[in-house]
Fold this sequence. Notes:
The N terminus is likely disordered. The protein has 585 residues and is α+β, with helices and mostly antiparallel strands. The strands form five sheets. Strands 5-1-4-12-11-13 form a six-stranded mixed sheet, with no helix packed on it. Strands 7-8-9-10-14-15 form a six-stranded antiparallel sheet, with helices on one face. Strands 18-17-16-19-20 form a five-stranded parallel sheet. It is built from 23 helices and 22 strands.
Amino acid sequence: MTMIASISLTGMGPAFLLDRAANSTAKENARMTLATQYVGFDGHLQRDQLSLFQYRHAVRSTTFRQGTSLRTVVQWLRHAEDFPLYASPYTQQDLVLFAGFFPDLSSSRIASLISHLKQGRSHEGAHLPGEGVGCLLSPGRLFLFKSLPSNENIFYRVTPQIVRWSTNPLDLVDGVQDLDEGAIRHCCRGENVFLPRDLHVVPASQLVVIEQERVHTLPFDHVTPFSCPARMSLDAWAQWSRQLLLQAVQPLVSVGRIGILLSGGIDSSAVAAALTLAGANVTAYHFSFADPDASEERFARALCQRLGIPLVAVPVNTGDQDSLSASWDMPHPYSHPGSIWMLQVAQQLHQDGITVLATGRGGDTLFAPATSGLSTVLRSPISLREKGRMLLGALTTDWSTTALLRSLHPAFPVVGKTSMRLEQGQQEEQRRLRRADFLTSVDGEDVPAITPVEAGAFSPQDTVLELSVWQPHGIRVCHPFHHKALLRFGATLPDAYRLLPRMGVKIVKPVLKWAWRHDVPSEIITRQWGSWLDAPAQSFCLTSPDRLLAWLATPESSLMRRGILDRGKLLSVLSDPRSIRSSLL
């Protein structure tokens, strides 16, 4: 048998596999098993042989836990002689791979998705339940798709001869020659950019179609605002959001014991409350910092006492020995700033036997204001009485009268990036790269700007956490606020109900706080400040300049070999605490 394609499953963190079936047709309600290790996928194929179908299949060793009601298909394969099969419910001419969290994914839904993709109706992907990524290899075409709320990513590289794709970018990087030098310089300046050259990632809500002659992108998933009555009250919006969050956590109830990463803020507190009310077996995990400036433990403990759930306070280390390690193996050199803390929590979760971790991520996008001002209030679909209350409330805050009057124009909000630049005189500063006074310049000029990653889009930092922290420990991270119905809610919520000025106080996320006011402690609802969680790490560069110099400025340093770091400038920066604080290290 001539093997022209290689398809494999790669063990990473928890995922869901279809039970092997003896026949070639899966039942609509086929029994599913929950793998304790996540299963991603990868493959490569000759572009001139996209119409041929012979596959080799390999699964790395993994263990299973029986009895879960979560249902998702990772892979279906057609029959061959030398490898085991998963049953195919529709045809023996297509290969389908999934990675992600897809509750209630049935055979009929998969068959419908395949039919729509083949017919060019890619927008039907919006009806796919759950979140994740997938690929369909059908005669003559390869489809790679990503749902809008997905944590997963598919990377691909296309040459005139070969198509390669994987859920792990390291599978597609052949060496340092694949790295973009300009992107490396931006990475060293702290920009959240992707480094490999000619390596693409499927954008969220998009479908990439690869054919023998072309590669093109189509819309796959989308969020449409809800149709709702005009001028709904704050209480009505709050009750609606509460119901949707309870629906979003429902698929997690049958997982078994589930962890919640609890900060002590309203977002994670609301998710913890929703999970508890839905009947989930919840254990809260909280970063425990010795530094009082970074501690939110009292909020987390108050919530857990109210909900009656256990709290595991993980004492995250912030010593010099934990800040950097030559042993780290990451798919991107610019790690998440909290990688070491996440790693310590992941180790505790793994020790406790927890494979699914929920977070409050996404609450800001749904409920917090991007911009706010008098124009926001005036143009929002709320009652005249409520508009009057908000306008009077704005006058009681510390916003100046000049700033408020200026905010009658949408271009000059009192809350937003534009207003911050105007008030702080940082217009030019915002256009420049972040300071890194110890790096060399290129031909006397800064590196040309690279478009920053937008919120909600692909992030190399998130990829580091997924592939280097969560997945190796067998942990599947779920964000209930990324549920499709809640995304639709966020697209519908009037801007005026994202920040409520009342009695001298600016209440951020009033809808979420009002929705859960009876379930979480009052101090979480009324708190108006946030801890500086990075505080313990801020002292590392100040207290360890010799170690930084030894790591970064030796002849063996990649930064020195590439001519990116200037040793003399680094010495100058490390000799002055003010220079350390003003530079990016």
